[in-house]
Amino acid sequence: MKKILVWDLPVRLGHWLMAGGFALAWATGDSESWRLVHVFAGSTVMAVAAYRLLWGLVGSRYARFAEFVRGPRQAVAYLKSLLRARPPHYAGHNPAAGWAIVLLLALALASGASGWLTYQEIGGEWLEELHEFLTGLMLAVVGVHLLGVLVGSLAHRENLVWAMVTGRKLGEPAEAIRGQRLVAAFMLLLWTAVGAWWLAR
Amino acid sequence: MKQVLLVLSLASGLAAAASPQELGAAYAAEAARQAPGFQPSARRGAEFYARRFAVSEKMPACSACHTESPLQPGRHAVTGKAIKPLAPRAEAARFSDPAKVEKWFRRNCTEVVGRACSAAEKADFILFASAAL
């Protein structure tokens, strides 16, 4: 196996925008002086998550939901295989990671929506409670995701964090995606900037 | 730890809903355990409310968002959003939910005062806000 291009630019940019936005939103959530930053960071996470839904349908091979969303039985089977000497290797997301992505996207949208409604003073105080519960849950899934990245990196002797930076992972040359999808990456930045600005007004 | 004990004592002493009097009494009882003979004071509460802690640039005092009087609607110093009056006389739901009261004391004391507020300060504050005419 060689290093091949697996993650296109919208996937990588979206990933780090979401990670950065979530970290910033989490760090500023309890502060009134940082309230505008919190709202903008949360809005960024929401805008990126929304774009990712579309990209999961029309993106490059490994960005598509159809490529990595598998049943719970396959996810459990993969997790069990990690205990063995040579777990099966996936060029794209493994079945357990697929679940983390779906959960994180769903939580990003639900948490973002409840936070946005709270900020706009639409709905009652229960939305604020829901927002806090959902972000706590999201932090827990982020923790599991990070643990999965660590275990996966060790099991496959492959730096998965760096792979999300360069887009390159181990795989057969024939499995590589062909381009970085520069136009879609530019559209993501534009969409996120306009979307976050609109939501955070 | 003290905060946890206080929350527990508040949660056990009061149901989910409470009156400002009950909530103030619970804080006063906690303060009396720390300093025997403690009596809440609306005057001390008023002084605390108006004091410039100057820890936060945009929110140097309670009044930065809540105005000079707890009877008046306030305005968020950062977002500009409207804030309902603090006084139960003007906004009946104030100081009726112990968890919410603890949450906002925790947040606002940390940012505006620069530390956690004591049970004595909270008892004084609630008495001041409740007594506001």
From TrEMBL, chain A:
The keyword Transmembrane applies. It is found in: Cell membrane. The keyword RNA-binding does not apply. The chain crosses the membrane at residues 12-29, 35-54, 96-117, 137-155, 182-200. One of its GO terms (molecular function) is electron transfer activity. Keywords: Cell membrane, Membrane, Transmembrane, Transmembrane helix. GO terms for cellular component: plasma membrane. It is a multi-pass membrane protein. Residues 6-167 form the Cytochrome b561 bacterial/Ni-hydrogenase domain. This is Cytochrome b.
TrEMBL record, chain B:
The keyword Iron applies. Residues 40-133 form the Cytochrome c domain. GO terms for molecular function: electron transfer activity; heme binding; metal ion binding. It comes from the Bacteria. Keywords: Heme, Iron, Metal-binding, Signal. Pfam families: DUF1924. InterPro entries: Cyt_c-like_dom, Cyt_c-like_dom_sf, DUF1924_SHP. Residues 1-17 form the signal peptide. This is Cytochrome c domain-containing protein. It comes from Candidatus Desulfobacillus denitrificans. The lineage of its organism: Bacteria, Pseudomonadati, Pseudomonadota, Betaproteobacteria, Candidatus Desulfobacillus.
